[in-house]
Amino acid sequence: xxxxxxxxxxxxxxxxxxxxxVFKGIVLIxxxxxPFGMALPGGFVDVGESCESAVVRExxxxxxxxVQIIRLLGVYSDPQRDPRFHTVxxxxxxxxxxxxxxxxDAKKCFIYLPDKIPMEKLVFDHAKIVGDFLRNxxxxx
Amino acid sequence: xxxxxxxxxxxxxxxxxxxxxVFKGIVLIxxxxxPFGMALPGGFVDVGESCESAVVRExxxxxxxxVQIIRLLGVYSDPQRDPRFHTVxxxxxxxxxxxxxxxxDAKKCFIYLPDKIPMEKLVFDHAKIVGDFLRNxxxxx
Lengths: 141, 141
Hints:
homodimer; alpha+beta; Nucleoside Triphosphate Pyrophosphohydrolase; 37% strand; NUDIX hydrolase (chains A, B); hydrolase (chains A, B)
């Protein structure tokens, strides 16, 4: 049986808090590899690994944070969303404490308050994903 | 770059209604291929196809119904959930009218009211998925 499906990736919307539970912002990265630009931290899911484990691992690898998954935001699977090849991204809203530090595929880390996120600099469909998160967040408040 | 990720599939929880908007039940299939047993209708996502398009296509192919997606239920990615290989399933709650008719990978179709679903006959992790749907449904009412 020959099966060919899109690649599966995970991305994290990491809500960063300080030790007093004050919300500091969302973590974005500057990508080290093409497509260049800013993005949510994330990466491919390994065979033998759940999507939840993958997002925890990728956040540790790229932004050096131990994240707690809050919930699934959505699944983004438009064939055009990744300019390299077809990738389905499973996006989780996460919570973390501490200072992000760029590593692996991330060149640099940034912390942005929601209304300061530079949407025009986001690669892939990450502006759409962040937009969905922000709308969804407003609906819940 | 060599990337290896799990396969991506979609499954549908199809809520069937009659023309008077009376809920008739959930559609299950008897599988034609291994693993044998009952399951939610579903299948693999093609490269170049979104998950939403895939679930609409698969429901048409397997149970001969035109479904409308209501919302995403969840993403199921436990590496052990599929006995054949690692498959990530993106599960959508859908609505349809008419009579399901088995085709393609489905040998037979069944319509079950939620409290009559034979959970013990469901293959993969579909009993867990259906359980999540039923709990979620109760929460919303």
